[in-house]
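Inputs:
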Amino acid sequence: MNHEQIKKVFKEVCPSGIDFISLKLIKTKAKLCSVKNSFPHSNKLVMDEGVQIEVLHKGQFSYAATHDVSPQGIKAAVNKAIFLNEHSLKWNLYPFSLKTRPSFELRNKKTSSKDLKTKTTLGEINDVLSLACDVMKKESGIIHCEGHGSLRNIETYYLTTNGSEDLNSKNLLDFSLKAIAKNDNDIQTRTWGNTLQLGPSFFQKDLFKKEAFRVAREAVELTHAPECPTETMDLIILPDQMILQIHESIGHPLELDRILGDERNYAGLSFIKKENFGEYQYGSPKLNITFDPTVETEAASYSLDDTGVKASKEFIIKEGKLLRGLGSLESQERTNLKGVACSRMSSWNRPPIDRMANLNLEPGVATFDSMVSQVKRGIVMATNKSWSIDDYRNKFQFGCEYAQLIEDGRTTKIVKNPNYRGITTPFWHNLKEVGDAKSREIFGTAYCGKGEPNQAIEVGHASPACLFENIEVFGGA
Amino acid sequence: MENYFKKETFYNIGQDLFKNLEKDEDLTIALSGEETNYVRFNGAKVRQSLNVIQGDFIMTLNSKNKTASLRVGFADCKEEGQYERNLNRLKDGLKELRVETSTLPEDPYLVPTENHGHYEKEHVGSLPSTNKLMENILGANQEIDLVGVYSGGRLLRANLNSKGQKQWFSTINFLVDFSLYDKNHNAVKEQYGGANWNQEAFSQQIKLAKKQLELMAKPKIKVPRGHYKTYFGPAAVHEILGMMSWGAVSGSSWKKGESALGQLADGTKKLSPKFSLQENFELGLCPPFNERGEISKEKLSIISNGNLETFLISSKTAQEYNLEDNGASQYEGLRSPSILPGDLKEEDILKSIGTGLYLSNLHYLNWSDQRGGRMTGMTRFACFWVENGELVAPIEDLRFDESLYKFFGENLIDLTQFTETFPETGSYQNKGIGGSKVPGMIVKDFAFTL
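Outputs:
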């Protein structure tokens, strides 16, 4: 069915007397390619199409989602969502108002992200990854190498009974390279990867060859490196590890649905309480965190969230002080706190919940060299390898792939198996310097997990390198 | 349940698709389908409810030493003409798959399409009707802070190929995965699941959880970092076992030098003779066949009395490294694992701890040194300090960082005689299938680091 036909069916099957009903038709086309030691390993196409019906009636939300996108399938889904709603009303958690589903202006249906129509074949992606593997294999000591690349195009058609209509489309690119090196009994891994809103033109042979060479060389370097020392020292974290630090110890604890307890049985709660917003000193005055859905290539950029709320850049933490939470209109209504446009769903088969989207650490003024020069005894860490944090988002332990010691203001030897641990608030209070815009990089992941039923969704984090004082650092087994 | 995915439709549409194959082509079709109701609750009230009808139809084409697959959304509704429309979509998909496959180089490790045989099993069950569901879960529990999710419905996995393979597994089951909280944020976690809803059994489970929560009423003790004798309840062992599927038992991980069991394989480290791990499809929680229709042994010993018997080896890994496959999934993770029980009686657990920790659950585990077999994670829910064989008080959350070669090795004192079964709770992309059966265990000198 085309959109006009769907609109007609939706009109016909939505009964009067229900406060609000919406339909989302989500079409995903994807190409996923994986190469191992230069040979094709796995090649997949995706052609998925499903409908979600959302009902908000008498303050209660209920949903029905189906792969059956026929008129009868849509009608059945509307009836099921209404049926679930009827049987949920008695057990209503919070009487949500219709303000949580604002109407929005009809947008130009032709609006779409650049590079939408992908003609790139699996074979072309395979060729780039295979070439990268060839480069990695050439490095003496490499025992295994692999590459992954995927392109997803997701188109969402959104209709509501309050007269709103939207069509949007985005491209998501996800890729990685991995080199494993061996020297005597030691084996080390180095990777490069990212998730961004970009199209197939990213798969440039020269770029992948360059990064493949670096990744392989650094993996080999690590197999000759001493163990990371165990001591308390200053730590410079590079952007590809800052993504994880921001995500786990700022993003998740500030999600209002966690603070409201919706996630207590799964992802957990938060050490932040409702009364902390506007008051709590989260970190040092150098800490500035924004929710920013406007960065063009960042993984979770959008103009409307999945409930039709206009998305804009907002300060979440300014000069270390906590200002607002990561909460949808539903969470804002329940808490009477300020939030952001972050109601998102992983696909047509899961309801929207509070997600962090793009959460960025704003650049400071320090150059990377000036940060290093301030450190008498410290370490620079890059690229996340291991992550774990408690259900209140306090005690964390993170591991990285690659590290370099700092001695008397200069970077010196490479060390392997670097890890660090800390507690969220004291850790962010130990933020001494924030790198300048030159050291800022944009990273993302497609696998932020949360929710019951579970939802994995893309998030983005942009950050410069940052210097932290007195951090507990340690090495491998 | 309305039975959206019928065996006959799947078999027929498969046969009709095979008619479109060209010379030197083989096609494998896997279907993963569900009709599930989810009810998410918080404070014994409903936050969101959801009905999902989802069918993932995956075609894998082997053609001229090249291979690729295509996933298409699929639901065989009752509307007139739907069969033809679905068939035409799948035929179009096959054409696109053929074109894309032709752009790839030859795969020297291609897994040939073979007939792995016929398998059919349909488990029946009795779920609460949707109009009684919320009353059944929440009705008698309005005075407690109950949070979690109900999921219930029909799940299926099926497989066909152009060599004549035909497999079908369907099951009807439910799970209430829940926690109870008190006013001081103390919490206990439980599961009530099965194929036939029994209101009395669910009420009993809630009653037990409430009793356990009462034990947490005392102020929490802050236990300093250090090494302690520690008891892990079956739910905590189940969490640890989950890590084994993440780069430990995989044959591919082993050959790449990444496996956490690599040192066991090369003989540089040992595990306790008390520790045995197997894949056990006799549990009936999931089918023994994988995405290609390859069928695993009903019981596959992975570690027996501390000795490594085998890694999980998929047919692809077998091709790549010249090994024999054992019906593992492409991901080479555990689908229905059992850890064999030991000799520790339930009534002797506290006495056996003496002074130390009693942990019911763990949270957010990850490898801190994968090749060294060291993992980190947090305590969560009902965890207690024990002194002289008595529960003293609940503890503040602790972080651990310890090697499996210690806690499944030299420091493993014993495993419990009793075991518990944990159905798969994962529902990323679609509702998971499978589960595990594990005992509790007691370990000496377990390292807590923060």
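Remarks. Chain B touches chain A through 98 residues (CB under 8 Å). Chain B has two domains: 7-214, 226-448.
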